[in-house]
Fold this protein.
Amino acid sequence: MTDTPCAPDRGRGAAAVLTGLGAWLPPRRVPNSELCNRIDSSDQWIRERIGIAERRFAEPHVATGDMAVEAGARAMASAGIGAVDALVLASNTPDRPCPATAPWVAHRLGLPAVAAFDVMAGCSGFVYACTVAAGLIASGTARRVLVIGAETMTALVNPLDRATAPIFGDGAGAAVLEAGAPHAEGALGPVVWGSDGSLSDAISVPAGGARGRHRRNRTAPEEHFVHMSGNEVFRHAVRRMTAAARHAAAEAGWVLGDVDRLIAHQANQRITATVADLLEIPAARVPSNIEQVGNTAAASVPLLLAHAADQGELKPGHRVLLVAFGSGLAWAATTLVWPAGLSARLS
Ligand code: COA
């Protein structure tokens, strides 16, 4: 590797092709019963209303960057590569407010001088980061990009808030995207994405940013945790995910009946089921891992891809529709045909 700021523009116009997938989950499993010692809820309510049985919590000394390194190393091993031209980390829980976490992750992965930066786009962050990577590849700026989604949601969730505590979990997933032919299997299709900042309060952490700096010494501890209007988010999630998924499929030239697998951000099993119903995609074509891992925000889509691939639910030639939604509000959807020979690394 050299210190040149970007790769030569060989490959201009190339598609971003998925060649590697990796995942890492903290070992500590937290069942609903453990949360219900602290909040007024029940295992039955959480299973029925959200679809979660347990989630993983990172130990206090483990942060987003550590999990990103683990998932990133696995994705590179899955792709059979030892170097990339850029690293994009999607997260809502960076290790520190400054600097970005990605350069440290690149350093720990043994990728010296590589371009590395963070993307924050809520639970859509991984699909946003893949879109940025695809743009780098299409412009000839990079030929190989490591895209990671990693979250330490336990850093943002108030363990006493029953509106958020049952929902979120920690973890990381990663993908390698490499320059290839536009119609190659594994090539990302057209992206449909968007945002609505008029609803930025629907999921937010009120304190700790530049906007609150004048009252830094007067913030209540709760203001440093995520606040969410669950009902409002639910409604918008269903509307935006359905529209974006429909639009992305059309942009790819597919009808919805062509979709073999819907990979939806694991926000709430009822949201996923409602979106699938509206799109008329049968439940058997909608893999899910929320029951075991909860909502892992920007890590959710790559974790589900890795788990579904590992379990043989994604088969070569499958037409896969990806869709995500989260804080911002922000949403994104894209498509790909599942490639042959891709083996996700979970360990
Ligand atoms: N345990 C037990 N009861 C709970 C509860 C909890 N954790 N949270 C709310 N309730 C109760 C309420 O008090 C209310 O009781 P009532 O009918 O006696 O007044 C009832 O359940 C319904 O409350 P509501 O807020 O309407 O719940 P809901 O069905 O909308 O579920 C969420 C709440 C948060 C699970 C749901 O709105 C949701 O998943 N929203 C989207 C969140 C999300 O995906 N965020 C991430 C986006 S990326």
